């Protein structure tokens, strides 16, 4: 097997040596032109006169001028809903064979996002690109003979007339190429189990029969899977079960809040590789070990635009104001938060995916996800984004010697003023008042807008320390466990009231 691993590693190195990165601007213009040409005869393309855009001297600027921003609700209400009624050639030629179900964060109602054959192929091609970049990491030849645990949602997709529905991880796993099936775990039968707890139990039962070299999955659910395996086998760490585990490929959320928890589950460090696969497409992945930033995929079915993430451009529901200015790829700056806007081979047009990103390296086109447009706490001018909250929580972990893999926060009215009330999922012990003071001080030092707000209408910070398990049970109560489900970091007051009622019920049941 070592010989086979050497051959595979050699092929990856050879491919990496001959495949060069495309010119970013040329690649993006080519993608946009290809999107417009293919969709010109759809209902959307005719309505917005794609033919005229294609004749413009600068099609990127003309595209931005003629087509409005769309969030999911607007695009679905005006266009995608017509596909659900059987209409074809709506925003992309033909009918999509899949719809990805996604609420992004926990929520009982799912979005239904079209996934075309072109998108399935684009995701596959980006996956191949990512495998190619493994040549940049110091991995032994044996690694390339090991199995890969892909922890996603069920591959048992629901049949809905002329299409199938499921989460994007399930759709992707159901389309893995035949040559990869020998490497893929948990395997077809277990992956089809709908119930998360039952699926993870079957994974735990079979775990010792597999030689896992890499795991892919959202951090919170991967952590729970590993803990279930350790509990089942009465093991101290996952390397007792999978001694050759070397890589963890995360995605969808920042890994930093989970880092300390993962360390406790390992006998030795693994290489963490970040990816950006959403229901709308596979947009970026970490391509080199020197950074946790991800390289945007610029030549594979997705066209990008960027709007500065500033309060004056954002509606209260997280959508963009119609006149929000667009920054094109050649004009982006480092360390500026942007709302990501995409157009894709699934017929999403100037679509606000809901994520905010920043460029860490403009030349290499590397980014980090910094938060969500809805996860932006600005009720009293505090202008707190998720990345600032993550940084502050990480400081708490270091200061108090605790682990905080989950949190949520809301601005709560107290009399005429507001406080920020935080629920921290804490492993370990720390005084809540001390946590609140340290959190407040950290945010004031890091964010001048927050500091000004604390001198005016934001009158305090309150912390409630609870078990991280409460967050996972909230996710389970609101939507299926596992898959793409993520916890809301910021809640509105009405949702926060539901959350607090749920926490009280959990505590009373214990």
Automatic annotation (TrEMBL):
The keyword Coiled coil applies. Residues 429-456 form a coiled coil. Keywords: Coiled coil. InterPro entries: GH3, GH3_C, GH3_M. Residues 297-364 form the GH3 middle domain. Signal peptide: none annotated. This is GH3 auxin-responsive promoter family protein. Residues 390-493 form the GH3 C-terminal domain.
């Amino acid at each position: 097997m070592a010989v086979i691993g050497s051959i595979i590693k050699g092929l990856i190195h050879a491919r990496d040596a001959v495949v060069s990165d495309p010119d970013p601007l040329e690649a993006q213009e080519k993608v946009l032109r290809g999107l417009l040409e293919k969709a010109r005869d759809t209902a959307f393309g005719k309505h917005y006169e794609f033919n005229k855009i294609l004749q413009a001297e600068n099609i990127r600027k003309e595209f931005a001028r003629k087509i409005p921003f769309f969030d999911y609700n607007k695009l679905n209400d005006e266009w995608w809903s017509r596909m659900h009624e059987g209409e074809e050639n709506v925003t992309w030629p033909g009918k999509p064979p899949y719809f990805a179900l996604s609420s992004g964060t926990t929520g009982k109602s799912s979005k239904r996002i079209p996934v075309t054959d072109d998108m399935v192929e684009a995701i596959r091609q980006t996956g191949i690109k990512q495998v190619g970049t493994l040549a940049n990491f110091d991995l032994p030849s044996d690694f390339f003979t090991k199995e890969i645990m892909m922890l996603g949602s069920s591959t048992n997709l629901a049949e809905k007339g002329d299409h199938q529905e499921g989460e994007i991880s399930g759709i992707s796993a159901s389309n893995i190429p035949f040559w990869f099936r020998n490497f893929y775990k948990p395997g077809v039968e277990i992956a089809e189990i709908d119930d998360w707890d039952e699926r993870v139990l079957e994974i735990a039962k079979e775990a010792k029969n597999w030689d896992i070299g890499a795991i892919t999955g959202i951090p919170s659910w991967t952590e729970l899977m590993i803990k279930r395996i350790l509990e089942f086998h009465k093991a101290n760490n996952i390397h007792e079960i999978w001694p050759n585990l070397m890589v963890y490929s995360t995605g969808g959320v920042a890994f930093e809040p989970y880092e300390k928890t993962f360390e406790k589950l390992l006998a030795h460090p693994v290489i963490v590789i970040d990816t950006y696969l959403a229901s709308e497409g596979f947009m970026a992945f970490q391509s080199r070990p020197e950074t946790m930033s991800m390289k945007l995929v610029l030549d594979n079915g997705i066209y990008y635009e960027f709007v500065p993430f500033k309060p004056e451009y954002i509606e209260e529901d997280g959508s963009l104001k119609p006149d929000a200015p667009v920054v094109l790829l050649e004009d982006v700056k480092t360390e500026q938060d942007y709302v990501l806007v995409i157009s894709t081979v699934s017929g999403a047009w100037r679509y606000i995916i809901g994520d905010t990103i920043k460029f860490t390296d403009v030349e290499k086109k590397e980014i980090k996800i910094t938060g969500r447009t809805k996860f932006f706490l600005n009720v009293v001018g505090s202008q707190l984004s998720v990345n600032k909250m993550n940084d502050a929580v990480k400081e708490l972990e270091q200061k108090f010697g605790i682990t905080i893999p989950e949190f949520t926060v809301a601005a709560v009215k107290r009399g005429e003023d507001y406080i920020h009330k935080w629920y921290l999922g804490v492993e370990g012990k720390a005084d809540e008042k001390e946590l609140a003071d340290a959190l407040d001080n950290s945010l004031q030092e890091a964010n001048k807008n927050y500091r000004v707000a604390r001198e005016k209408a934001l009158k305090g910070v309150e912390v409630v320390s609870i078990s991280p398990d409460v967050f996972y049970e909230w996710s389970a109560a609101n939507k299926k466990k596992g898959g793409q489900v993520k916890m809301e970091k910021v809640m509105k007051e009405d949702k926060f009231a539901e959350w607090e009622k749920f926490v009280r019920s959990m505590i009373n049941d214990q």
